[in-house]
Amino acid sequence: MTAPTTAPVDEVYRAHHQLVRQVVDQAQTAWAELDPAAPVESWTEQVRPRTVDAVEQAQTETASLAAWYVAAVLVATGVIAVPAVLLAAAFAGYASNGRPLAMLFDAAFGRYQRATALDVPDREARALGLSWLLTYIATELSDTHRTAITAASVAHPEVAGYERIVHLPACGRCILLAGRLYRFSTGFQRHPRCDCGMLPVTRGQWESHRDNNPKALFAAMTRAQQDKAFGHGDAEAIRAGADIGRVVNARRPGALYVAGGHEYTRDATTVRGAGRQMGQLSRRPGDRYRSTQLARPTAAQLVNTASDDAELRQLLRRFDYLR
Questions:
Q1: How is the chain split into domains, by residue range?
Q2: pLDDT tens for residues 61-70?
Q3: What is the DSSP string of 155-207?
């Protein structure tokens, strides 16, 4: 992220998260009114209406930040820009999938009901339902914020797309996406409670060098933050020089498996990936590409296996984690 745009990014991030914290506090207060003796009535008549009202208000407020934010980012880069006119209230009342907020929040209450039906103690069932409710709230407010930024950006022909801004602390998958450029027609990849942001990028900036990237972000983290985001083993491999993308992608859903107490990955094992370097290639029936017949350990497994730093770097190269 270039220095001139740091101020508006930081300012709107703080303002948005202050709204999120306020609504989370309001939702927790409302959830405390859930009556275990009459859960459905207290939910539909008290808890849900108060929660929906609080979230709708926050959606309107966070959407109203978008027009100023986009204009401020453009002005900081030397572009003359006037804030677009957005109807902030149009962004309120619905989840990102188009469902009314009340219907979405009913799913959290349903979690509570199912837990109590399974004889889970009321205190634990309430904690479970509240956790889901707060996840929905934080996720939807961030989705609303990003959607409004997209709408405000479209009003400025100078904007070619957006750069993904990752705020620490963050997960490894988000860090891997830091600094990537996207057209607004590309959906924003996020996970529940993801608070990554969008930085509007002009056509001139689209081709320029940018210093917001996974490697720079990783270097700015403390060792504790690195270990929390990636796990100690993977973080240690990255600190030894392993490519962040290859380390993270090795943990794609469905790629991991354990054999003999060791952790392996199916990721990048074809001739187009690490398979070419690992050797022993063959094509299985139905496969398009040849794959290595050797097991590919995860980077964390190599950290546990190596006896010293020199052997670790050798193993990381052998299994195509180190360029």
A1: 3-156, 231-318
A2: 999 999 999 9
A3: T-TTEEEEEEE-PSS--HHHHHHTT-EE-TTSPPP--TT---EEEEEEHHHHT
